[in-house]
From TrEMBL:
Pfam families: PS_pyruv_trans (PF04230)
InterPro entries in the cross-refs: Polysacch_pyruvyl_Trfase
Transmembrane segments: none
Annotated source species: Ureibacillus chungkukjangi
Keywords: Transferase
GO terms for MF: transferase activity
Protein name: Polysaccharide pyruvyl transferase WcaK-like protein
Domain Polysaccharide pyruvyl transferase: 14-285
Amino acid sequence: MKNLLYIGWIGFNNLGDELLWNIFKEKCGEFLDVKEFEITPSVPGVDLKSLEKYDMVILGGGSLLLPGYLQILQKALHQGKPVAIWGSGIDWIEKKNLDLLENNQLKSMEQNFKQKDVEVLEEVIEKASFVGVRGPLTKKAIEIMLGTEKAKKVKIIGDPGLLLKKPNLTNKKEKIIGINWGTTFNRLYGGNEAKVEDQLVMAAKELIKSGYKIMIYTVWGNDIPHCERLYKKINDSQNVILDKNLYKEKKLMEKLSQCMGTINFKLHANYLSFTANVPAIALGYRFKVFDNAASLGLQHLVVSTDSQQLTKEILERVAIIEKDEAKIIEQYTATKKEYSPLLESLFTNGYL
């Protein structure tokens, strides 16, 4: 019996992180002999300082390439245990540094990784059996820290959300825009969640004027009060549905499949939308959203939350969806086809 430790931000009823864990479990069941494996998820109560009983440690999907998690992988390596990085990404890079990174002008990552953290990252990447990261911006950031030669081992494999299975979609599309709203406790580009919310209200009112209905939905319990406030501010019960249910991924995809498009605050709401064949506009509130969009080749559908013309930019993206719906879904499907074998290679190539 081989005991695997899967590290993720799980056990907090956040649909995005939970679905990544669900996908990992599903793939283990699909490709491994489950009788030979015991998989422990890092839910609250699991002591990540005590790794003795595990045979291997996997850093799973999410924005987990952080010094604290990397130190856990380093500790596992020092105990002679293999480790893997599976679709994880970097986050928390300031907007000005994101802009520099995208233009190949960022020289240092010292705001996020001190020298001792870089040394841990270097050792983990050198010794890990599998290193697959979420997107090209994460890989660029690693190259800045380690140099291109040492970062060669790092493969871009996409977010594990790409492995979501399409449910049986029977809903006919209607003129509905889904809006996923919530909170990051004001830790977002622009530093003003209330302003973003007000701009979103204005965008929703404009969409209603042009014949759309709005469906507000959530993927995390903590976001419900923020969705309720958005609903009250739009103040149009005839044209706005507030759905406070915390659905499992399959059920939520079925719900979203009736929409023409979605506008999403939380990262994995975009994957649920795309998997339901619904183009998604991402509110770029932190680095991870831009990294993710770059991996999908859909950067033009991101609106940064520090934009001075947020309402206008959202409406422009809706116009792009109206015009290019088929092309957008085609692009997502092509990316899924490219990355799925890379994500599955952790299971199919004998790493576990």
